[in-house]
Amino acid sequence: MANTRNIALNVLLKIENEGAYSNIALNNAIKENRLSSVDSSFVSALVYGVLERRITLDYIIRAYSKIPLRKIETKTKNILRLGILQLLFMDKVPDSAAVNESVNLAKKHKLQKSSGFINGILRNITRAEVKYTLPDEKDRVRYLSVKYSVPESIVKLWVNSYGENNAEQLLASLNGRAKICCRVNTLRTDADTLIKKLSDEGVVAEKIPFIDNALYLENTGSVERLRAYKSGLFHIQDASSQLCVNFLDAKPRNIMLDVCSAPGGKSFSAAQYMNNRGRIFSCDMFDHKLKLISAGAKRLGITCISTLLRNASTNDTALPVADRILCDVPCSGLGIMSRKPEIRYKDDLISNDLPDLQYGILCASAKNLAVGGKLIYSTCTLNPEENNKNTKRFLKEHPDFYGVPLKLPNGITRAFDEEPYEITLMPHTCGTDGFYISLFGKKASN
Ligand SMILES: C[S@@+](CC[C@H](N)C(=O)[O-])C[C@H]1O[C@@H](n2cnc3c(N)ncnc32)[C@H](O)[C@@H]1O
Description:
- The chain is α/β, with parallel strands linked by helices.
- It folds into 4 domains: 124 residues, Orthogonal Bundle (N-utilizing Substance Protein B Homolog, Chain A), CATH 1.10.940; 34 residues, no CATH class; 57 residues, Alpha-Beta Plaits, CATH 3.30.70; 204 residues, Rossmann fold (3-Layer(aba) Sandwich).
- Strands 5, 6, 7, 8, 9, 10, 11 and 12 form an 8-stranded mixed beta sheet that branches. Strands 2-3-1-4 form a 4-stranded antiparallel beta sheet, with helices on both faces.
- Helix 1 packs across helix 4 and helix 4 runs antiparallel to helix 5.
- The longest helix has 28 residues.
- It is globular.
- The protein binds S-adenosylmethionine.
- The site of S-adenosylmethionine has 19 residues, from helix 13 and strand 6.
- InterPro entries: MeTrfase_RsmB-F_NOP2_cat, MeTrfase_RsmB-F_NOP2_dom, NusB-like_sf, NusB_RsmB_TIM44, RCMT, rRNA_ssu_MeTfrase_B, RsmB-like_ferredoxin, SAM-dependent_MTases_sf.
- One of its GO terms (cellular component) is cytoplasm.
């Protein structure tokens, strides 16, 4: 029988010590250990549970431990986090199993001394009438940080930028798995046919109401093994990214530049809007990532994409004047925390350098836009410095550009007051990942 708790511990250590991505580390562990679907679900619940609640769990450890948290070595700390998660946040695990299996795990890792320490803390928690009390609500930032397990710096950023109401709803939306969405490959099929084919493979697919050819998927297991996927009938893409490409409105025979394009999802969707006619230059500054685009395009039967190794901020490779430009810039990723919960613990989350890099990419790319063309600047983050402030500055410093008002579909509402040419999508207002989209046009010169 697979030792699921040990597998979860090893995945958590890979993420914490080696900076591995949760989804990749978890998928690898599931494959390497050939886990059944029940065991895979349990290991996923343990790993994501700890990642989503780490700050809360550490707060509880601090309350029960005589040793300061920073002095507890990483393995012991993670065994404790796993144990407390099972005791307090997983209904189906009996207390005795949570305690005994944690102690066994410590012994398995030859942590004899720690096993007593772990046993003591977990047993004290089981005996306590009130398991833990959150910090005083008057210290709002600390209270929200511990309650939702998000660093105080992000809580502060969101409360100050989007108001306390939005911030709390955003924080509450982070835990629990985000829905899997896909984009129907309209070059090969249509939504109804794909839904039927997926259903034949046991996948439940449902149309996303606010955007054509977008589906929610459930019960997929590993997507890559599906026949419909192998036959290139869809690609995975959140509804927010699909909306972004929809606003770009690429047409057949357009020339399009996707300046930060890997792994290629938005280029693929645009190629479908263009009916695979015209040309998309899909650029990125990493060669290995361009290979992902080529492979994806091949699987989907897209031939209008040319990949190009290029640094978008220096504009050192000549590109044609384009009808459509997409600047889907590198960002802090605060909008996809429910998909990658470990993002919140990165040290340099609110970087002072990113907004300038993004602004540089936007300015350099805009030079290639044709009069009458459209340019989108987008990020998958929720930070006005990387979003609204960058685009406001762009319009101020580029009088030959103007903001194009976005026509929002039913079901997509603004969480706060913004300019008509931009929208910050939030999980609680739009049911999407957190995402920012802004749309620009270029004036004819006099
Ligand atoms: C947000 S991701 C793009 C996602 C992509 N648009 C999609 O939909 O699949 C940003 C990409 O920008 C690339 N990148 C970062 N800095 C860059 C630069 N200076 N020039 C070009 N690409 C860059 C990264 O390698 C990354 O693949």
